[in-house]
Amino acid sequence: MAYKKWKDVDQVKRYALGRYRSWDQRWIDKREKKIVQGLFTKHKIRGIILDIPVGSGRFQPLLSEFGDVLSADLGYMPVLYQKERVGICCGSINANAGQIPLQTNSVDIIFCFRLFQHMHKRKERVAILREFKRVSKSWVVVSCYLSSVLHNIHRRIIQQPSRITILKKREFKAEINEGGLKLIEMTSVVPGLHANRICLFSTKGSA
Ligand SMILES: C[S@@+](CC[C@H](N)C(=O)[O-])C[C@H]1O[C@@H](n2cnc3c(N)ncnc32)[C@H](O)[C@@H]1O
Fold first, then answer.
1. Which of 19, 117, 133, 136 has the most crowded Cβ, counting Cβ within 10 A?
2. What does residue 144 show for φ and ψ, rounded to 5 degrees?
3. Alpha carbon of 159 to ligand 1 centroid (Å)
4. What is the DSSP string of 130-141?
5. Which atom of ligand 1 is nearest to the CA of 58?
6. pLDDT tens digits, one per residue of 154-196
7. 135: closest CA among 185, 179, 168?
């Protein structure tokens, strides 16, 4: 995965303040949080939540409404930022989503937002889904980019600043199957316009 590493905690802070500042990104951020809140409420999801990758901690306040939150990230600076500046999570660890240093069934929910579109190899994505099934007792929430006609046209016309992997629905479903997760619900953040989908999985039984 090609992802720019933050060099210090202030860089994470600047990202946290700037990333969702424009009106359209603020709107997307609001939509994503509303959908996540709705999913947790509808399915009565509560317990110990592992937020991986935590990044700038965008979801920490919302997730903490539903239980004790642990944060994890491959980068050291996001982990430090959560500990020193955000201060909501019960613990913050350095971890690769494909190899989480926690025991089997040690959390109730794994929350993984905006990582999958940066994972360009099928093998990596399936390994992560398998690892989520191992570590979470009950639930997994994952966001991923799936193709839609309008979005495909948009991406062809306007060059994107970073490489993003957009999967076909059937490709993603096959990966979920291999990962051993059961798809409960999939919601489009902006139907037809934005590729981001928010998926809820149960770790009990595959699709
Ligand atoms: C776009 S941020 C997502 C943060 C947050 N979930 C959100 O939606 O705002 C991506 C984060 O993924 C982290 N990351 C990249 N590869 C990772 C991996 N294999 N395991 C865990 N974290 C990873 C990066 O360090 C970065 O902080």
1. 136
2. -150, 160
3. 23
4. HHHHHHEEEEEE
5. 9
6. 666 666 666 889 999 999 999 999 999 999 999 999 887 778 9
7. 179
Q: Is residue 113 in contact with ligand 1, taking CB distance under 6 Å?
A: yes
Max Cα–Cα distance, the chain, nearest Å: 46
Our mutation pick for probing the ligand 1 site, out of 115, 124, 128, counting the most ligand atoms within 8 A of Cβ, is 115
* Lookup: tokens for 82: 């959560």
Query: CA-CA distance, 100 to 133, in Å (whole number)?
Result: 11
Residue 12, ligand 1, Cβ within 6 A: no
Q: Which residue minimizes the CA distance to atom 12 of ligand 1? A: 53
Write the DSSP string, 75-102: SHHHHHHIIIII--SSEEEE-BTTB-SS
Domains of the chain in start order, with CATH, are: 9-202 (3.40.50.150)
pLDDT tens profile 64-118: 999 999 999 999 999 999 988 888 888 999 999 999 999 999 999 999 999 999 9
Tracing tokens 């901690």 back to the chain, one arrives at 57
Query: In ligand 1, which atom is closest to the CA atom of 112?
Result: 6
Instruction: Give the number of the atom of ligand 1 that is nearest the alpha carbon of residue 98.
Output: 19
